[in-house]
Amino acid sequence: MTRHIVGRIGFYTLIALLMAFFTVPLLWLAAAPFTSDPTYEVSLPDFTFTNFQAILEHPYALGSLYNSLLLAVGTAVLVVLLAALAAYALSRVRMPGRDALLYALLLLSSIITGTAAMVPLFQLAVELNLIDSQLGLILILTGGLLPAAIFMLKDFMDSTPKSYEESARVFGASPLQIVGHVVVPLVRPGLATIGVWAIANVWGNFLMPYLLLSDIEKQPGAVIMFTLYTEGGQANLPLLSTFGLLYSVPVVLMYLFVSKKYGFRFHGGIKR
Amino acid sequence: QSSSDADTIELTITQNAIAGGKNAAAADHIAKWVIPKFEAAQKAKGKDVKVKFVPSGVDDEQYKTKLALDLKSKKGADVIDIDGIWAGEFAEAGYIKPLSEVAGAETDSWEGWSQIPEAVQGLTTYNDKKYALPIGTDGRVLYFNKTLFQKAGLPADWQPKSWQEVIDAGNKLKTAGVPTPIQINAGTAMGEATSMQGVLPLLAGAGGEIFKDGKWSGASQPLKDALGLYQQIYGGSGLGDPKLQQEAKGRDKSFAEFADGKIGILMEGDYFWRGVVNPTDGVAKMADRDQVVGFAMIPAIQPGKGIRGQDFVSMSGGALRTINPNSKHPKEAFELAAFTLSPEALKEETKQNVRITPRTDVNKEILTGDPLLMFISEKVLPLTAYRPPLAVYPQVSAALQEATAQVVSGKAPDQAAADYQAKLEGLVGGAGNVAS
Amino acid sequence: MAAIELKGLTKVYPGGVKALDSLDLEIPDGEFFALLGPSGCGKTTLLRTIAGLETATGGAIVIGDRDVTGVQPGARDVAMVFQDYALFPHMDVTDNIAYPLRIKKVAKAARAEKAREVGERLGLAHLMDRRPGQLSGGQQQRVALARVMATQAQAFLFDEPLSNLDARLRLEARTFLKKLQRELGVTTVFVTHDQAEALAMADRMAVMENGLIRQIGTPAEVFQRPANTFVASFIGSTPMNLLDGQVRGERLEVAGCKLPVPSSVEGRLSEGEQIVYGVRPEYMTYSAEPVEGAFGGRVSIMENLGAAHLVTLEVNDTLVQVVVPEGSEPPLGAEGFAVPKDGRALVYRDGNVV
Amino acid sequence: MAAIELKGLTKVYPGGVKALDSLDLEIPDGEFFALLGPSGCGKTTLLRTIAGLETATGGAIVIGDRDVTGVQPGARDVAMVFQDYALFPHMDVTDNIAYPLRIKKVAKAARAEKAREVGERLGLAHLMDRRPGQLSGGQQQRVALARVMATQAQAFLFDEPLSNLDARLRLEARTFLKKLQRELGVTTVFVTHDQAEALAMADRMAVMENGLIRQIGTPAEVFQRPANTFVASFIGSTPMNLLDGQVRGERLEVAGCKLPVPSSVEGRLSEGEQIVYGVRPEYMTYSAEPVEGAFGGRVSIMENLGAAHLVTLEVNDTLVQVVVPEGSEPPLGAEGFAVPKDGRALVYRDGNVV
Amino acid sequence: MAQATSHPKARYSADAAGLGTPRAAAFIAPAMALIAVFLVFPALWVIYLGLTNYRLTGLAAAEPQFVGLDNFVKAVSDEGFWNSAWLTVQFVLGSAVIGQVVLGFTIAWLLRDRQGPLKRVVEGLVILAWILPGAVVSFLWIALLDRDGGTLNALLGIPGFAWLLDHPMLSIIIFNTWRGTAFSMMLYGAALGNVPPSHLESARLAGASGWQQLRDVVFPHIRGHILTNLLLISLWTFNDFTPFLLTAGGPDHKSEVLAVHVYNVALRGGELGFGAAVSTIILLINLVVAVFYLRLLRRKS
Ligand SMILES: Nc1ncnc2c1ncn2[C@@H]1O[C@H](COP(=O)(O)OP(=O)(O)OP(=O)(O)O)[C@@H](O)[C@H]1O
Ligand SMILES: Nc1ncnc2c1ncn2[C@@H]1O[C@H](COP(=O)(O)OP(=O)(O)OP(=O)(O)O)[C@@H](O)[C@H]1O
Ligand SMILES: [Mg+2]
Ligand SMILES: [Mg+2]
């Protein structure tokens, strides 16, 4: 019995430590925006809303959040849609060399997210007349995220029983009907997870939007966040913390919504 | 284009400035004053001109990258602000062209040139051709905290004449309990700030020039002296805070600490006065700036041992306004650029935040109210030096920063200098281009 | 409603496994046909090939008078119940049942009506709004049946539909399913590995092994006269005694006992031949007194079968089992005799019945 | 080897489900005890609580003469075979069998020796280097048994160890397991939901429902005289007929037929009382000729039970089932009569046997 | 009719949904097209750039020269590159392989059979760290680790301790662990759901300790997941640029992992050709790592 109790105490201590580890860094974000003159110190805020007022008056802040939303949702939709189709086909139809192809793409995707790729991507966008176009940016970001998304979704689909599809098939459903009626609802948690993953990835991306969009009205929050420094490079803490909070809220809401509505989890690993 | 009349001239102008963020005042000036006035003036001339401001608010490297990518693809704004030291590399890459080539010979006859000092004009010149208009200039001094000085028994009108006097003052401050007596930028984290507010003024003070007569200065005695001073300050004497030099946000921190009365002596440019400790809108406001903050010229290592035999030295830089060679309307673009540098425009721009403009006529009027800027324009600018506008300079500068970082973290100055020379030879194409 | 005919049906999986080996089979219209066999013998493969979920490697499948070998599964007009039922977890019972109609573009109202009707018939009326996850195994099974019934297909294919049920429910479902099939009259192929299920439900049945059909017949035929030792050992709720023996003159010597030659094989055995003597425990009578022409040994295990006991005799180191009716159970360790009933003992030569 | 005693054992799951409701149970040393019951009745919970895998909410567990209620599972000296055998897929047979010894820090050589010995005993000698994935179901089951035997525990706990086997193998495994237990003499608790298994193997058995024990007794007791309708309907390989009836003078009126009052309840029923009349299909005889005091109806379904048939009669809209021996099967639709055997019919009042 | 008539090849396909190769190709095509244009093509371009002396500005921007493997030679003979490579190894091993995997697994393990608010809150917090934008998160950590006002020093009672300067690698490793644990946690959560409880319990009945249960039952079972997880997070961590926002690679290159190195070389230094070459080397290292993991996965069976 005592061992049991020691175990429980150990468990809750560990959980408490973990929660502290994950919470403490966030405290600043909770306190600083409501403090009139925030420093790096976390202090009890004086609950002012002047910082929010300042952000609301900021010429680009709110617009940039809208742009972020557009880019993130646009990319996520495209990633989820294309990756789901591809992952499904790859999971269900034998194709020679599909695994090698996936791994190769996964590796190439790592180079494309690096800094060195900015010149090719920029010039590509110029050639395709996609410069200063949010659509172009969405396509480029999608290209970078697709391989990992396909990889993860394929795992997910592999672990979904085939009998549902076969059953629908015997009833005469066409492949597209099968995908629409059966597969998509079944793998919805996986799609949701990949969607949130894509959103989170795009949401934080700074360099690509900055380089590929020239119109400030189209720039996402990540770029605007970086403007909140002064000429000498000092952070404007009141604005930065407040914008940081506003800039974080949509992703968090999106996560909460998705996890509540569709579930949020991964399945599977590489099948043997 | 289809949305506007065929004879409407559309111009764009870009700066690393943005309303509500970085350099907001400059952005506002362009958007709220320059553009309407310029459009009105053109209208009066019978031209229908529409100007658009393209803001930006990022690190200089990122801004530069974006400009380079834009210009390489023959895109970008018609009027572009760049840093003075980028002129060389942009010109070499063909991203910018001499003004007379782009906008015609009349650029040489712009009325402003006559008001701009020779040295400042030099900023715009590469291979004897003018590539841009200068936007302004600045200078570096030693700031000190008079309150702390008083505590340490130092004079309020302190003006050291040698490095030793600076060290002595530092020691007194230390004895008086000042946490960080002297702060001179070093290390790589601060980037170009280390060069401009650190190693380059010191190099000049020791009589060295980074680039002279076609050769880059290597592990020369002046460099060793400069690095030696770093060692004196950061090498365990407790005069400086070596940590501050390494932090990613170390410069911000040094500002805050100075404002907090924790730093005795700080080498900085006039931006520090205007933008940091400015009692109205600085990032580290000091309400009593004018009473507490003192400034002095940067002394040579010993009197008369500075460059050109000077007793005192400084470094200056400045931004440029250039015309995109791919502009559809280069002449109007030049007019716009010139307009922004007209006396009225400059006066308007500096109404809120005074700074040193390129024009002496304007400076005379606007600087009177500001003791530091007066000091700089009268005492510092005449003996200041500029960085070479060469394409390879940024890398050389980075190597210099590296050398200071090594000294701060404990390497011997001679060794750091030797390492620097080795790296330099690799950068500038062999030992033949290096003088030691 | 249609007959099913398989001609030389062969299925080789990509890996090289020959799951069906040139099968010929005719299932008349309206028959309840059971496919029985051990795990891996190809039952599921056969069913899936009929449904079109696997493409045949060779041979032909005829349903009614249509050759459907190359036809899409959806167009074959068969309906299938999977072992795991494959009810769509995101749809409620109504939608699950109505799904085939949705595919056939039946209007929404008509679909719901039909689903209600079929559901009612199967006693699901109060469950129509639940999702499969909220149903018990037996209920799920009935939903799967209802979904199949809603299709009005030519033939039903059932892949071990009862194996996920409680033993108790399974017994009830047997009777229920059999009754239902009789009423609907739809040709039904029923896969199972439970011989009792096959015996109880089928009109006719096939016993498979390794992709081959080892015997086809009515349950009684298969039970009473297994065509080979494989079928013999596979069928029966108590294992059939299959004992090595030798022909010794007028008698068979099996497990050290002398037994009369069964009348059915009289004159067809040669002296000294090695045979296997097969007799079901149900087809022997037990006697505590020595009997001529019987197995004699010691009672070593006794298992309760309900209204009877299965007694295991150790006969010269061989185990012989015999069913003893209630009330006459011998004590463990007693000496006992098992007398094969006349006409029920079989003789196998090279694995096949003589 | 030790007796197991449960005193007022209660288990409430966090969700509030009361899986065991103050159970009392004594299992003498060396007994083969079967726990039977429908899905969800708490069989697994009981076993797991004995093993210590679930902590008891109330009550005590005594093994031998040690109260182990608060003891870690690893220290209770019991061994368990899980339904899925829980063989470690990445270890070969030897390592699997030797695993408990490895945890007990037995030297490698000694472990291997013991594993070989136990493996040999269970006929696994030629499989010792294989991994579980390379074994058939029956072989896996024997490895799981071997692993349990290697522990030399005080008691064995089996959770439906046969339910993953082929029907055929299951029958063989029954006999094998029973024999093995007898030889080892280790107290064994055996969970199953298959009543035939429990009947065949157990020395004594308990039938559970909703966390309660509904009857304890030998298989014969439970089969012949189910204490309540729940047990009655649960036991038997053919479902027991449980028919509503009423006392009418000297007779019982059941399904519209007049039947004699069974002698065991004579004088204990009152006129007009509603009762349930229970008789197993095995305990009735079928007659094609009208008989007094029998169920008379039309033959509606016939299921082959092997050496017998289960005939379902439709008696005034009630289904009555009777087992008919081979050879005397009536044709479908014929009129038939089912006569309860004397002394085998039971009467239930409020669900409990009278 | 015993003779099997030969039939025209089946006119439909045998996969579960009846997609068939043409339709499957059509499903894959849009993704592949996007990938080809926006991923493969520029990636190959990067590899090509690595063979030139291309620069962002200056003469080499106007007329880049093909220099063959010079950049690669320069990279591998550069101390800075090896320094970065070594730091990257530490970073990947420390924050991904050890930090995220261990922490992610631990959380998944602790919460494996719990339901309710505790699980949701813990998971939510961990996921929060994962989905918050990098710019915000890095700022939070700068505030957390600040020398003077930082929360951490206040909590630990060691004012003035310079985490980012004295222990830059440790700082970014812990930071990245904090940031990336969610992915591993979710993956292991799913994986642990697949470990049959009976296996764990039979180990427990044999008397196995917690660690023995993990070693003998859990790890062998979730091998596939562990390796998938390792592969993905190693790749991601290799290319992770976020440490730059915390330390900018400093002090004195002490935290300049390869991704930051490339940033410094390509963007700050403008040496795009060289940066591209380093990127290509990173790609090759990634390839080696991936092959190594796949080998591990294949071994067995
Ligand atoms: N998709 C497949 N690829 C390759 N071989 C397969 C495939 N499906 C089944 N097999 C093999 O074909 C043979 C027959 O399998 P099938 O599933 O038809 O057996 P079954 O009789 O249904 O067995 P069970 O009773 O276990 O369900 C087996 O040897 C099996 O391993
Ligand atoms: N971990 C658990 N948490 C909550 N309730 C549980 C848990 N495990 C079992 N139960 C519930 O306890 C009751 C008894 O479950 P148990 O698993 O003991 O049944 P069982 O008799 O073994 O059934 P089966 O034949 O299906 O294995 C059921 O109502 C079940 O839903
Ligand atoms: Mg099967
Ligand atoms: Mg159970």
Automatic annotation (TrEMBL), chain A:
Which BP terms in the Gene Ontology apply to this protein?
transmembrane transport
As for membrane topology, the entry says:
Multi-pass membrane protein
Q: Which InterPro entries match?
A: BP-dep_ABC_trans_perm (IPR050901), MetI-like (IPR000515), MetI-like_sf (IPR035906)
Gene3D superfamilies noted in UniProt:
MetI-like
Question: GO CC annotations?
Answer: plasma membrane
Any idea which UniProt keywords this protein has? Cell membrane, Membrane, Sugar transport, Transmembrane, Transmembrane helix, Transport
Query: What are the TM regions of this chain, as residue ranges?
Result: 9-31, 69-90, 102-123, 135-157, 178-200, 237-258
Q: Which compartment or compartments is the protein found in?
A: Cell membrane
Q: Give residue ranges for domain ABC transmembrane type-1.
A: 65-258
Query: Where is it mainly found?
Result: membrane
Write out the similarity annotation: Belongs to the binding-protein-dependent transport system permease family.
The protein's name is Multiple sugar transport system permease protein
Organism per entry: Nonomuraea dietziae
From TrEMBL, chains C, D:
**Superkingdom of the source species:** Bacteria
Q: Which organism is it from?
A: Nonomuraea dietziae
Looking up PROSITE patterns in the UniProt record yields:
ABC_TRANSPORTER_1 (PS00211), ABC_TRANSPORTER_2 (PS50893)
Instruction: Please list the residue ranges annotated as the ABC transporter domain.
Output: 4-235
What span is annotated as the signal peptide, if there is one?
none
Q: Which UniProt keywords apply?
A: ATP-binding, Cell membrane, Membrane, Nucleotide-binding, Sugar transport, Translocase, Transport
What is the protein named? Multiple sugar transport system ATP-binding protein
UniProt key word Signal: no
Q: Tell me, what is one Gene Ontology molecular-function annotation carried by this entry?
A: ATP hydrolysis activity
Single GO cellular component term: ATP-binding cassette (ABC) transporter complex, substrate-binding subunit-containing
TrEMBL record, chain E:
Compartmental location: Cell membrane
Q: Which coarse location class describes where this protein primarily resides?
A: membrane
Please list the residue ranges annotated as the ABC transmembrane type-1 domain: 86-293
Oxidoreductase found in the keyword field: no
Q: Which domain of life is it from?
A: Bacteria
Which residues are listed as membrane-spanning?
24-48, 91-112, 124-144, 156-178, 222-238, 272-294
> What CDD domains is this protein classified in?
TM_PBP2
Entry keywords, A to Z: Cell membrane, Membrane, Sugar transport, Transmembrane, Transmembrane helix, Transport
Task: Report membrane topology.
Answer: Multi-pass membrane protein
Q: Name one GO cellular component term.
A: plasma membrane
GO annotation terms (biological process):
transmembrane transport
Give the protein family: Belongs to the binding-protein-dependent transport system permease family.
Question: What protein name does the entry list?
Answer: Multiple sugar transport system permease protein
Q: Which organism is it from?
A: Nonomuraea dietziae
Organismal lineage: Bacteria, Bacillati, Actinomycetota, Actinomycetes, Streptosporangiales
